[in-house]
Write a structure and sequence with these properties.
Blueprint: H1 2-16, E1 18-20, H2 24-53, H3 58-78, H4 89-106, E2 108-110, E3 113-119, E4 122-124, H5 126-145, H6 152-160, H7 163-172, H8 176-193, H9 197-220, H10 229-238, H11 249-261, H12 286-318, H13 323-347, H14 365-383, E5 386-388
Antiparallel strand pairs: 1-5, 2-3, 3-4
Length: 390
């Protein structure tokens, strides 16, 4: 009788127990993308590293160091309750603005762009800080606004919040692609919080109209000689062969790499375009080298991995314990999804060249560090999900 009573009590306690959720699938996808990125980075950058830096593994070593630091940050952040970061939401927004402004007197230039700061011997890109800061601030703000976000005033407030940072990123760092990503993160977070889809349809139509009008004006002024760098990029996008010796050169070389890869590619390490023909192959254009060496099969496989990553984000967001956690995951999802779409679109000449990296794969210490920190936040939200042991 005593044993039976003990067994009943044990089963009762077991039914009431709750178990923390940890998304090992998400972690595996991220680790695979990191490993694949390091392999492709070495394959892509070994020629430039040898000829320019005297070390074929120059870029690999720097990226590996940033990846290790980023993974350490991911582990630490994943074990901190995500509500802890709500206290730093306003601070993150303010620090983002300050860091961008510090580029004016203290920033240093690389590859023709002044976008980095030296912090403790490391290069930090304030635009990456701004993306994470925007996710934290908007998640906190939307939760505090509650039902007021459904009003026209609330909608406009959330939509205007990212505008100062977007303008600073665009004008101070001359990084329009990061400005677009930051605004896209805000729109996506607002989209999942507001049930009125008509506003987003109107917003989308207005955006398309502005883009079409801008292209029309630039084309009409093509012969005036008054176009700036971005205007010339749009003309090169429309007809890259006409600008083959200028702004269309990188795009054409990327398209040659994609076309020469075929279905299965030339083989890992066998790319010809990386041998000094394709500028910044290890950065913005690494997807074209993937297509050349691994073919259409390799390119689609990587895109499928990103789709699986987005799916895991959606699973965690849908099951998050509260709105704040769900919005954090949606913000990270928007960041990665928009950046992947823009990178692939640029490489394939679907949109004008904006200079955007491929998450976890392209060379860039700041990018991989803050991306892994964001993954840590997502894992922290996932750990907040409780599974009942039935």
């Amino acid at each position: 009788m005593a044993e039976r009573r003990y067994g009943n009590n044990l089963r009762r306690r077991t039914r009431g127990q709750q178990e923390s959720f940890f998304d090992y699938t998400l972690l595996f996808i991220v680790l695979f993308l990191l490993a694949f990125g390091l392999v492709m980075l070495y394959s892509t950058s070994s020629y430039d590293g040898s000829s320019q830096q005297g070390d074929p593994a120059f870029y690999l070593k720097r990226q590996l160091l940033s990846t290790i630091i980023g993974m350490a940050a991911m582990i630490v952040v994943a074990n901190i309750p995500y509500h802890f970061w709500e206290h730093f939401a306003v601070l993150g927004y303010v620090v983002s603005i300050i860091m961008i402004l510090l580029i004016i007197p203290f920033g240093y230039e690389a590859n023709g762009a002044k976008r980095w700061l030296r912090v403790a011997g490391m290069s930090i890109q304030p635009a990456e800080v701004a993306k994470l800061g925007m996710i934290l601030f908007l998640a906190s703000l939307i939760c505090r606004m509650g039902r007021n976000i459904r009003t026209g005033k609330g909608f406009l407030i959330v939509l205007m919040i990212p505008m100062p940072i977007c303008l600073l990123v665009w004008k101070v760092t001359e990084n329009m692609s990061s400005a677009i990503i930051i605004f896209g993160i805000a729109v996506l977070m607002l989209f999942v919080s507001s049930p009125d889809y008509k506003r987003f349809i109107l917003l989308g139509l207005a955006g398309v109209a502005v883009c079409v009008l801008a292209v029309f004006v630039i084309v009409s002024l093509a012969d005036s000689g008054s176009l700036g760098v971005r205007g010339t990029r749009i003309l090169a996008w429309l007809d890259p062969e006409a600008y083959a010796s200028g702004k269309g050169f990188q795009t054409l070389q990327a398209l040659y790499a994609i076309g020469s890869g075929g279905i299965l590619g030339k083989g890992l390490g066998q790319s010809m375009q990386k041998l000094g023909f394709l500028p910044e192959a290890q950065n913005d254009m690494i997807f074209s080298i993937i297509c050349e060496e691994l073919g259409l099969f390799g390119a689609i496989s990587i895109l499928l991995l990103f789709i699986l990553l987005i799916w895991r984000f959606m699973v965690i967001a849908n099951n998050a314990p509260d709105l704040f956690g769900a919005l954090l995951v949606v913000g990270v999802m928007g960041h990665i999804a928009i950046q992947v779409i823009l990178n692939v679109a640029v490489v394939t000449n679907t949109i004008p060249n904006t200079g955007i990296s491929l998450p976890f794969i392209s060379y860039g210490g700041s990018s991989v560090l803050f991306l892994l920190t964001e993954i840590g936040i997502v894992l922290s939200v996932g750990r907040g999900i409780r599974l009942k042991d039935l």
